[in-house]
Amino acid sequence: MDHVASSAPGARSVPVCYRHPDRETGVRCTRCERPICPECMVSASVGFQCPECVHGGGPAHQHTPGGGGAGRTMAAARPRTVAGGPITADPRLLTKVLIGINIALFLVQLAVGESFTQRFEVIGQAYTPLIPGVQGIAQGQYYRLLTAMFLHAGFTHLLFNMLSLWWIGGPLEAALGRARYLALYAVSGLAGSALTYLLAAPNAPSLGASGAIFGLFGATGVLMRRLNYDMRPLFALLVINLIITFTPGFNIAWQAHVGGLVAGVVTGYAMVHAPRRNRALIQYGTCALVLVAVAVLTLVRTGQLT
């Protein structure tokens, strides 16, 4: 019997993953028909299978005719995630590494002081108090588009971003696989930095992982839609975040959030909807197109400022 979740007597039952009873899902293993969540899904020739069916619940080998009536054994294909990435022992490893990098660099910010932050945050063109001369991306410091993704303005800023990264990034990493997840994170963060550079005042600094995290939000929405999940909780959380983003007084770089969200939706769509034929080419090709857009925005703004 399926595990189901019901909020009230008579309410429509919603299946939950048989391995993670706290996660609702609309997807079932094509072999045993048990409901499975994205972390448990293994891409199969048709639909998805659960880890138990892949590793031992079904035929693990295929026999082909051989001489003398004997058969030759062919190993089954390596199990894959929804997006075609390899299944790993720790599906949240990369998320943990990213959180660790953010925390480590925040400690460096505290130890070194404001001069470190001013050297690596997004800023178009300005005189900074602790660094002599004009600084900014317009001066050729393009590395700021990347480094700003790992800096934070304070403990509260870091805490909320890292909690969001853990809650949203962990399941998404399990569903996409490490390489695709890292590509999504990188292009989303860079898109957020590029849009900030293009639209914000040239002397307005910006920093934080929220551009990349909004990209994860967007990709999660695409994945949930693909798997027929109830998207209302995600929409509610996204609306709350967008309200905070555009509320005066919070001093939030809305450009980074919007840029990351758009890049995340576009890249996430390619990740989960790419056909099996040439799947990796389509997925990483989309990432490359987003990076081209980032380069174009950056060059346009640099031309304006110089």
TrEMBL record:
Compartment annotation: Membrane
Protein known as: Rhomboid family intramembrane serine protease
Coiled coil feature spans: none
Source organism (scientific name): Streptomyces griseofuscus
Gene3D superfamilies: Rhomboid-like
A GO-annotated cellular component: membrane
Domain Peptidase S54 rhomboid: 140-272
Source organism, top-level taxon: Bacteria
UniProt-listed Pfam families: Rhomboid
Any one biological process term the GO annotation gives: proteolysis
Keyword annotations from UniProtKB, A to Z: Hydrolase, Membrane, Protease, Transmembrane, Transmembrane helix
Residue ranges crossing the lipid bilayer per the database entry: 149-169, 181-200, 206-224, 231-250, 281-300
Topology within the bilayer: Multi-pass membrane protein
